[in-house]
Amino acid sequence: MTDLASDVVIRIQPRGSHHLLSFERMYDRQITEIALRSLTERASMLRHRIPSLLDPLRDHIGIVEMELDSHEAMRAIAHLDRLAYGFLEILLEDSGQMASDVISKLHDFLMPVFLTAAHGEYPIFEVEGSQADQIAWQLPLEFLPIAPVLGPSQSVRDQLDRFLGFRAEIIRLMRGGPSSLRRGAAGSPEVHLFAHIGRSTPPGIAHQIAFLQEVVGVKKWWPGSTPIRDAFEGAADLAGELVSIFSRVNSAEVAAIVHFSCHYRASGATPNGSINTEPALDFGECVDGSDLLIRVFDLRAEFARQRQTATQPVPMFVFLNACQTASANRSSDGLLAFFQRNGVSAVIGTETWLPDRLAAQFAINLYTSLFRGQRLGRATVEARRRLLERFRNPVGLFYTLLGNPLIQAKGI
């Protein structure tokens, strides 16, 4: 943590029958607190509901058009405000506090942090989760409209700037370890790509594949052109690829970027009303034309069977650019939890279903910032803002970073 100069530290501490959610301004050590009752249960319930609660906003954004006109953008802002107040109402239930009062309190308390930030810098909000990790990553802080609008304008962008995820780096589950991203013989980071391939590969996935191949090169692409006989064989093959990556990393540098660009079926309800009983990765088609659908359970089992070394921190950045990989189903059965348990340095995932082309654009924005030397935490905020500034689209808030925000690729 010594390299992370946090501007605000957020703590969650048990106090008898309730928890205290505190925000500390580091420049003057002032603290404001919010008492929350039954926080563990309410935060867990909220996390499990977030994908469905985001459905109206996701439906409004749509799956084809990337740019929102002024009217559509204002409606998106109204959706975000409703989400924020709804999230807080759930968390504040039985606490005797109103969501509007809490938002005003935090807005006023945090205003000096934003006013004193250096030009072009984003304040760093660190969730200190040593006593409450499971609660810490459950709070949807990015969606809170508590950042001040610094100018007199009330434009669409100004209204979206109120939401914390567009104005600050939010750090969760920070781990120690290296931050420098290792470069290979060609001078670029080592990228391992796990991407959907088939007759109906979505254009956004194809765009990500082309970008990574052109800009940094891809060390290994799975399944790529390799024929996979069936999903049973696919689970063993995919696990073997991951075991191979894990076995080659060292502790001196962040050794690799692992990028997933495929479909993901989280456990739980789907938009069409069906139920997924098991989370699974969808990589297109097997040789026989059946779905190359790999359950996370089978991936975990094969990974455990093939890995010969004990779990330890692994200096690696994993980008799960597939729908719902950071949703409530990051619980013990999910893909994000699999990588967290196996000690990777940082993971980015998504909170809900995402339009294919917007998901691709977010990834390209993030990697562009990262490969230009920005830290991962800042690159995440910049990727959100580029979608906002270019398309008036707030979909970048659907992405969550967990882990080391200091990962940086220098001199690429």
Folded structure, characterized:
The chain is of the alpha/beta class. The protein folds into two domains: 8-171, no CATH class; 191-403, Rossmann fold (3-Layer(aba) Sandwich). It contains twelve helices and 16 strands. The protein has helices spanning 39-53, 55-61, 70-92, 99-115, 133-136, 156-160, 203-215, 231-248, 296-306, 335-341, 356-371, 376-391, and strands at residues 8-15, 18-25, 30-37, 124-128, 169-171, 191-195, 220-222, 256-261, 263-265, 268-269, 275-276, 280-285, 291-295, 314-320, 344-350, 399-403. A hairpin with a 5-residue loop joins β12 (280-285) and β13. α8 packs across α9. The protein is globular and about 60 Å long. The mean pLDDT is 86.
Task: Describe the structure concisely.
This protein has two domains: 8-171, no CATH class; 191-403, Rossmann fold (3-Layer(aba) Sandwich). It contains twelve helices and 16 strands.
Primary descriptors:
412 residues, alpha/beta, Rossmann fold, 2 domains, 6-stranded mixed sheet, 5-stranded mixed sheet, 12 helices
CATH architecture of the largest domain: 3-Layer(aba) Sandwich
Order of H and E elements: EEEHHHHEHHEEHEHEEEEEEHEHEHHE
User: Number of helix segments?
Assistant: 12
- Count of distinct structural domains: 2
Low-pLDDT stretches are: none
Provide the CATH top-level class of the largest domain. Alpha Beta
- Order of strands, main sheet, comes to 7-6-8-14-15-16
DSSP E strands, number:
16
**How does the major sheet shape up?**
6 strands, mixed
Average pLDDT over all residues = 86
Strand content: 15-25%
Annotated CATH topology of the largest domain: Rossmann fold
**Rg:** 21 Å
Please tell me what the overall shape is: globular
Helix and strand composition category: alpha/beta
Helix content: 25-40%
Ends apart, CA distance between termini: 25 Å
